[in-house]
Structure formats: structure tokens, C-alpha cells
Amino acid sequence: MNAIAGNRASSFVASLFRPDHDRHEGVRPIQIHLLRVLYLLMFVGVGLPTWGEVLRHAGPWDQVRAVAACVWVAYPTLGVLGLLNPLRMLPLVVFMLFYKTLWLAVVAWPLWSGGQLAASPANEMAHVFAGVIAIYPIVPWGHVLRTWLRLPARTRAAR
Asked: Torsion angle, CA of 85/90/95/101, rounded to 10 degrees?
């Protein structure tokens, strides 16, 4: 690789981690790309299988299972819009983080701390939901706070 190509590659990588104030409201492009991957994975991993379950279901629904199925169809399907505009669909990601983290805290943690999680029906769901920890770094929390809590953004001169 010649020096010019090497400089271009390092410049490109550096640009992924530099806040983009013009196109992405000060969010790093790497976070935008990772959010798009997350929205796609949400739809492929949760939305499609659950749509299949809903469409193939026959007979009356158990009310609680029906609510869960409808939520698990709705949020990843809406997440497809995040492929086009990742920042506008952030409330879906925060919703997902909140309900999964809450479930881990109120259902899985007591079972785990009592040594009963492995033998419980919640064990499989706990393993699936534990992956939520990998999503926290993807969320542009500064943008969330500035946008949702209206905290002032830093000025360009201060950057």
C-alpha cells in the first residue's frame, strides 16, 4: 500500500469517530452505522420470526402472549424506519433497552441471586436479554440528553 492510500484509509477511519455536526447532529458516523445495523438485526432477528408466529397463529390467543407478540412485531418493524433515519428512531432503541434491562432486574436477577435461574423457564430469555449490554455503547447518549432533555449543545468553538 502506498503512502497516499494509507493516509486516505487512516483519514477515513478517523472520520468515523469524529462527531458529524453537519449530517448527524454531532453524532459520530460509526454510531450512525452501528444503529443502522442494530435496526436491521432487530427486524431480522425479532420482527420477522414474530411476524411469522402472528401470521401462522390459529385459535384464540393467550392475552399476555398476544401483547408480547404484538410488541415484538411492532417495535422492530418500526425500526426499519431507522435504516433511513437512525436518530429519529432512537426512542425505539431506548424503549428496548429499558424493558430488557428492567426485565433482567426484576425477573432474572432475583432468580439468579437465589440460584434458581438455570432451572427456571426464564433462563433462556435471560440469556437473550443479557445481550442488551452490547447496545448501550451504540446509543449516542449525548444526543439523547441534548434532544430529549434539551441540554445545551457545546459550541463549535469549544470542540
From this structure: 120
